[in-house]
Amino acid sequence: MTFAAGKAILRIWLVIMEVIFKIIRQQENSAPVVQTYPLEVEPGNTILDCLNRIKWEQDGTLAFRKNCRNTICGSCSMQINGRSALACKENVGSELARLQYLQSPETQNKTIHEVTIAPLGNMPVIKDLVVDMSSFWNNLEAVAPYVSTAARQVPEKEFLQTPHERSLLDQTGNCIMCGACYSECNAREVNSDFVGPHALAKAYRMVADSRDSNTENRLENYNEGTKGVWGCTRCFYCDSVCPMKVAPLEQITKIKQEILDCKQASDSRSIRHHKVLIELVKAGGWIDERQFGIQIVGNYFRDLKGLLSLAPLGLRMLVRGKFPLSFEPSEGTEQVRSLIESVQKTES
Question: Which of 100, 120, 183, 212 is most buried, by the most CB atoms less than 10 A from its CB?
Fold first, then answer.
């Protein structure tokens, strides 16, 4: 950050200023429009404070959700300057400072006094900043986010856990169902079957819960095509916007590891892709493309339909001289293998 930008940010925190709020407004099944509202604010005013003032003082028709005003209920989640966040948590000063920092060097001396607010993504708009969260809740329900003790004999007292067993649930237990991760999810945007990071974070809480007796069936469900954990594109957006540091991607990765530990490489293409990739890199330092297609798509010559699907691509590669007839291991293969094995030992 330049000295000039630093001075501009300092000025933001020292004065009452007029900020232009650009709010994306929309009726159900209609095109969005941008409406601007000037407001004199202090740097410590939260975005929710400002929205309340706009509604009370300028436009009573503005619609948005709110409840606790204390980062607990998750109701006031919306897109603030292009990222999903809680309006009760973010304040004007930090938002303007963030925008100032993100400016290009050519425009960094220009003081920004604008805040753009839009509804959450990946959900249809009901009105203005209020979205229909039906798919969000339905996908949460799909992972059965409650402890199952049906296979156990009911004890005389409650199911007890050690402090360590309980600590495994702390991070995922912090989720407030605000929808920020779901709003930012690239996988959900292109794949309507993907249940979403919020659901899979809750799913890992059940997998990790020592009281649950349905872990095996859960892992089967979470392993289903791109509907479950294999639909995640690992874009990290869910982790970056989560206001409670639940780290949904981290929980998805833990579920993947649980699946990999109890499944064979031949069980599904997703699992084969993960395991074969690691084994080929361990063997040669990089991927032997000939083996990669045969083992993953062809399932070690067991899937004739899969093998036949590779034929057109293979022929085109042969014609253009791009099909590797031999494989040469890379330099440093031993070192690569040693690193992979060290990581595997750490995870086990």
Answer: 183
Q: For residue range 94-137, list pLDDT tens digits in order.
A: 999 888 876 666 555 566 689 999 999 999 999 999 999 999 99
Class in CATH terms, 3-130: alpha beta
Contacts of 342 (CB under 8 A, 6+ apart): none
pLDDT digits (tens, 9 = 90+) for 132-144: 999 999 999 999 9
CB atoms within 10 A of CB 75: 19
Cβ(62)–Cβ(23) under 8 Å? yes
Is the sign of the CA dihedral 308, 312, 313, 315 positive or negative?
A: positive
Q: How crowded is the C-beta side of 47, counted as CA atoms within 13 Å?
A: 29
E-only strand ranges, 81-169? 83-86, 114-118, 125-127, 130-131
CA dist 146 and 190 (Å) reads 28
Q: In the prediction, which pLDDT does 309 show?
A: 83
The contacts found for 96-105 with CB under 8 angstroms, 24 or more apart, are 96/9, 96/12, 96/19, 96/43, 97/9, 97/12, 97/13, 100/5, 100/8, 100/9, 100/12, 101/1, 101/5, 101/9, 103/5, 105/2
Residues 204, 253: Cα–Cα separation, whole Å:
9
Share of the chain above pLDDT 90, in %: 54
Classify burial at 132, counting beta carbons within 10 Å of its beta carbon; exposed 0-12, middle 13-18, buried 19 or more.
exposed
> Taking the CA of residue 75 as centre, how many other CA atoms within 13 Å lie in the half-sphere pointing to its CB?
10
235 versus 158: which is more confidently predicted?
A: 235
Among 254, 141, 146, smallest CA distance to 199 is for: 141
When pLDDT is averaged across residues 138-154 and rounded to a whole number, the result is: 84
Q: Does domain 133-262 have CATH number 1.10.1060.10?
A: yes
Cβ atoms of 99 and 77 closer than 8 Å: no
pTM summary value: 0.78
Phi, psi of 20 (to 5 degrees): -90, 120
**Cβ-Cβ contacts under 8 Å for 171 (sequence gap 6 or more):** 245, 246, 247, 250, 251
Select the more confidently predicted residue: 240 or 160: 240
Ordered by start, the domain boundaries in the chain are 3-130, 133-262, 269-347
Six-digit token pair at 311? 């034929």
